[in-house]
Amino acid sequence: MKRVGLLGCGAIGTQIALAIDSGKIPAELTHVYDASKDSALELVSKLKIKPEIVENSHLLSSHPVNIVVEAASQDAVKDVALSVLQNKRDLMIMSVGALLDESIYDILSDACKDFKKTIYLPSGAIAGLDGIKSIKDELESISITTTKHPRSLKGAKFFEDSDINLDSIVSSTLIFEGTAKEAVSLFPANINVAALLSISGIGSEKTAVKIIADPNTDKNTHHIVATGKFGNMIFSIENFPDSNNPKTSRLAILSAIETLRKYCSDEIQIGT
Fold first, then answer.
1. pLDDT digits (tens, 9 = 90+) for 238-251
2. Which CATH number is correct for 129-239, 3.90.1030.10, 3.10.310.10, 3.20.20.70, 3.30.360.10?
3. What distance, in Å, lies between the first and last C-alpha atoms of the chain?
4. Could you say which of 58, 63, 222, 223 is catalytic?
5. What is the pTM of this model?
6. Which class would CATH give 2-121+252-264?
7. Running along the chain, 272 residues long, what does each successive block of 10 average in pLDDT?
8. Which residues contact 43 (CB under 8 A, 6 or more apart)?
9. What residues have CB less than 8 Å from 143, skipping those under 6 apart?
């Protein structure tokens, strides 16, 4: 049975831990860490099988775990990812936006090869990544339009230098248009889907992103259009936000659980 270390005890981390504790993921959660000790304690209190709370994030991979699951932040990825691979543990990353920093991506990619370990990036809140990966060499353009309720966008770095008042928006409003690289920098907790799409396709500076705030929606919607020599690919995904964290889609949590379940299972694998 695979042994799992968990970095981040928020909405996503909690649901992953509960999936392991219930047996849905055939693994053992042995160690957890969160920058907030209270969050870690709250998570552990919900579990039948109690993992150890470690004192700092680097200690997760110093224990005999098979994989460390990051469900914390882009900063956590930048701080911990390399040491996890150096300790010869696999890594699952939810805060994919961190990898749009080319220096970090290159360092981690090289480390995977050097230490013969794997980084797993769940599909998150969007579907269709299998298709995008398969046609990326023939891809000429790709765009994603994300629509969320204003409350799901609150706290984003973008608003520090913007005159937009989310509380005053009364109808569907385009608040950002740019590249995936720009979007992930300005909305680090809101738009990991753009990071995944750009990594799967033609890169963060060629992936076009629009973000719409709509106070009349109760979903997070992602509309993706890809064109190239292969033809056209168009798909839309409507997700309900997680009840505990409106910045996170329910599908992102389910995707994380399924990715880890596949990692821990010996079975027929469907899709790439």
1. 999 888 877 788 89
2. 3.30.360.10
3. 23
4. 222
5. 0.91
6. alpha beta
7. 97 96 98 97 98 97 97 95 98 94 95 98 87 93 96 93 94 97 91 91 95 96 96 94 82 93 89 64
8. 9, 13, 14, 17, 32, 34
9. 207, 208, 209, 210, 224, 225
Closest C-alpha to 250, from 150, 125, 146, 152: 125
Which pLDDT score is estimated for 230? 94
Q: Supply 218's token pair.
A: 């109760």
- Which residue type does 236 have? S
pLDDT of residue 110: 98
Domain-wise residue ranges, the chain: 2-121+252-264, 129-239
What is the structure's pLDDT at 1? 93
Polymer length in residues for the chain = 272
Residue for token digits 């992936």? Answer: 207
**pLDDT for the residue 124:** 84
pLDDT given at position 272: 58
Residue 58 known to be catalytic: no
